[in-house]
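Field log, afternoon session.

UNIT: design team B
ACTIVITY: writing a sequence onto a fixed backbone
BACKBONE:
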């Protein structure tokens, strides 16, 4: 919540993040969780999916050895001119190989 409550942050997201976090809580009927996510997505700046974005993701994957979804998230963050990418990935994962952008793990905060 510390990140979400920071008034100086502007959030950038995509439909790929939405696809990762909403289906399971919606399927299991966790309405409060779905509402929380939908509120976040309504207020965040959304980067549209495009062929060019996916081509950038492929380059990110090749350069840093990323999984498909992580590469897409990095491409979205770069397209959104983000200075930080916040993730639930462990700091030992390939996502932390990316350069020119700080990667922060929520795992570190536990």
């Amino acid at each position: 919540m510390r990140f979400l409550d920071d008034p100086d942050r502007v959030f950038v997201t995509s439909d790929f993040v939405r696809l990762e976090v909403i289906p399971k809580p919606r399927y299991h009927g966790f309405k409060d969780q779905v509402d929380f996510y939908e509120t976040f997505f309504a207020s965040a700046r959304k980067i549209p999916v495009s062929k060019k974005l996916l081509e950038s993701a492929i380059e990110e994957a090749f350069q840093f050895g990323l999984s498909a979804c992580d590469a897409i998230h990095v491409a979205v963050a770069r397209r959104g001119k983000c200075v930080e990418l916040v993730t639930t990935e462990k700091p030992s994962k390939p996502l932390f190989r990316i350069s020119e952008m700080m990667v922060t793990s929520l795992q570190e905060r536990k």
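LOG NOTE: The chain has five helices and four strands.
NEXT ACTIVITY: expression trials, pending approval
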